[in-house]
Request: fold
Amino acid sequence: MLPLLLASLLVSGGFEAGGRIGVVFPSSGLENTHDAAALFGVNLGYEVGANRFTFDYGYFGLQAKQASPYRFDVHGLSVGYGREFILGRAASRPASNWGFEASAAAGSGLLSRTVGAAHETGMAPSGIIGAGFFQRQGHSRLSLGLDNVLFIESRPAGSARTVSLTYLIALKGGVTYVF
Amino acid sequence: MSSDACRRLLVVLVAGALLSGCGDMTFYRARSDYFPLIPGSRWTYDVAGSTAIDSVVGDSAVAGRACVVVFRDYAPEYWTKQTTEVRQFTNLVASRGGQDYVLEERYRLVYALPLIEGATWSESFRDTIVLMGTDTVFLKDSLRGRVAAIEDIATPAGTFIQCYRVETYREVEAAELSFTTDYSEWLAPGVGLVKRVTGTEESVLTGYEPGR
Reply:
């Protein structure tokens, strides 16, 4: 049953590849010492109708608010699901439409804090809830949206457990080629 | 959203939640304040069997610079903190012929921020002061600091995770005021100093009240 389902998905769907740029705004106390940073990312995806499944890589490097050799690099990998809601269709071009997209993803951040020759590395799982607008025309898909990124960390502290949630907001614009 | 889409969203979120046990607190350290100078904060330490109390009193200005007044065991200290460093006001005074002479009066570097394991910093201040017209004093005040480790520390006030152990060596050469000191400090996120070891003397946190 499952192979049949997968085969039907592959026949009815299509692959896509794209990239995005944006700005990440730190929050959760991180904004006291870190500035907003540019975001770069690439993604591979597969879409079936209004459903999109994506594998995503993104990078941003936060810097200190004052002149300093400090950097906080975050490399994120995630798998996600997005659902498109078509709001408009160009009458003259049947392959053109636009609408709203909601998405969710889970992944992991590879983290690196450096100052001079000293550096710390780590990992943190993340959850991403996104929303935005898209516009499709032929093979191209343009998008503009906002991602709510939550990094989740936890560790035992004596008999209790410390859970740390770090929230970042990302404004992003992307272009994707749909094969 | 269709029920199918909702189910997929739920699967993604559950997968994220299952992964949540794996973090190693890098973000936690990055956003934590390891040297909070919030007015009203109060630290109680056990220092070799006796009690010492530190408290943040409020803002002031010393030597033409805005600072935070900290009472360390009821003696005032003046601190400044920026994104990249923490400095303490130092005032070395020598007496000659019943008169006081200022040898050093400045904010000296104590910690370079942000704290990152392996980070080092140093500062050296030199000056020459002539006392009573003939007595020349050569002053040297140097400090080296290093973040040696990230450790969890258990104290009578509780267990503090993700503490930075900072090792500091300070050498002051100033006639009869010369001294060297070598100590290790453990700074906890959101709390500050929780333990300090100088030679054989140990000071540990027994109580902490955060300020507002």
User: Anything to note?
Assistant: Residues 54 and 72 of chain B are 4 Å apart (CA to CA).
